[in-house]
């Protein structure tokens, strides 16, 4: 006997061995789900979503969401995207939205209420914390940690082992939404391998944060940050070198 709480699986979807589906799950055409996956209650896998093996997804989550473009959006296109592609052993929390056109590598962890937009890649074993928003056309490296309510603006690039503390804010528009000139100059932030961004710091458009640089809590970075250097204050200024025992090359 079926009910409104029974899973709906399209006949053109492929479901691997040992998959567990919660109540009210919807799996559209062209979806593939690898063996051993566990899909939470009322989760939706939209057309073209591909899950690797042993993926876990919480309740009320959407994978494969197509972007909706507002009439005056500056960075969202109307094109349809394929995917997403989700690697083996990825875990995605409840009430998260993973857009079409993104790639989550193996062992990525996405917490509850997070959003990962289209044209985003996330490297292996990276953690995307609760309420984090990763906007479109971003590249996030491996072994990164993006903590609660961090905001990664469109067109940004983060290297490997980048640490982003809670409430970090980034921007890509120096014109703050005014004049046609701004469309030529959108640019996200670049954080090189091992960069660390402290609680509530603000990174202005196009700033490059060098390898192993540290932006202190509450700082506002208005210029590029040199590698292995600590920046503090508003506007941020160099305050000395990062201690050698904290550098990536000296970690076990």
Compact overview of the structure:
With 252 residues, this protein is mostly beta strands.
Description:
- The chain is mainly β and 252 residues long.
- The chain has 2 domains: 1-66 and 81-106, Hexapeptide repeat proteins (UDP N-Acetylglucosamine Acyltransferase, domain 1); 144-252, UDP N-Acetylglucosamine Acyltransferase, domain 1 (3 Solenoid).
- The chain has strands at 8-9, 14-15, 20-21, 26-27, 32-33, 38-39, 44-45, 50-51, 56-57, 62-65, 85-86, 91-92, 97-99, 103-104, 109-110, 115-116, 121-122, 127-128, 133-134, 139-140, 145-146, 151-152, 157-158, 163-164, 169-170, 190-191, 196-197, 202-203, 208-209, 214-215, 220-221, 229-232, 237-241.
- It is globular.
- The N and C termini lie far apart (56 Å).
Determine the number of helices (DSSP H or I, runs of at least 4 residues). Answer: 0
Number of strands: 33
The N- and C-terminal alpha carbons lie at a distance of 56 Å
Provide the helix percentage.
under 10%
Low-confidence stretches: none
CATH architecture of the largest domain: 3 Solenoid
Strand content: 25-35%
Strand order of the largest sheet: 3-6-9-12-15-18-21-24-27-30-32-33
Q: Structural class given helices, strands, pairing?
A: mainly beta
CATH class of the largest domain: Mainly Beta
In CATH, what is the homologous superfamily of the largest domain? Hexapeptide repeat proteins
**What is the overall pLDDT average?**
94
The rough form would be described as: globular
**Rg over C-alpha atoms, rounded to the nearest angstrom:** 20 Å
Number of domains: 2
């Amino acid at each position: 006997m079926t009910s409104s709480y029974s899973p709906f699986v399209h006949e053109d979807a492929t479901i691997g061995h040992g998959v567990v589906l919660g109540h009210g799950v919807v799996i559209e055409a062209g979806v593939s789900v690898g063996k051993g996956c566990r899909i939470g209650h009322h989760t939706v896998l939209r057309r073209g979503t591909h899950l690797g093996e042993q993926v876990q997804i919480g309740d009320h989550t959407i994978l494969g969401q197509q972007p909706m473009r507002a009439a005056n959006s500056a960075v969202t296109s109307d094109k349809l995207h394929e995917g997403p592609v989700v690697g083996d052993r990825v875990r995605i929390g409840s009430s998260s939205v993973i857009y079409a056109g993104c790639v989550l590598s193996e062992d990525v962890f996405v917490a509850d209420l997070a959003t990962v937009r289209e044209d985003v890649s996330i490297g292996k074993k990276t953690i995307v914390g609760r309420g984090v928003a990763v906007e479109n056309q971003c590249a996030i490296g491996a072994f990164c940690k993006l903590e609660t309510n961090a905001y990664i603006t469109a067109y940004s690039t983060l290297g490997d082992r980048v640490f982003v503390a809670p409430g970090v804010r980034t921007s890509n528009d120096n014109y703050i939404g005014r004049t046609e000139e701004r469309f030529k100059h959108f640019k996200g932030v670049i954080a090189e391998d091992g960069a660390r961004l402290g609680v509530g710091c603000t990174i202005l458009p196009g700033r490059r944060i060098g390898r192993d640089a540290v932006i202190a809590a509450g700082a506002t970075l208005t210029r590029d940050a040199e590698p292995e250097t600590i920046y503090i204050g508003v506007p941020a200024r160099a305050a000395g070198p990062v201690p050698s025992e904290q550098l990536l090359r000296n970690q076990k």
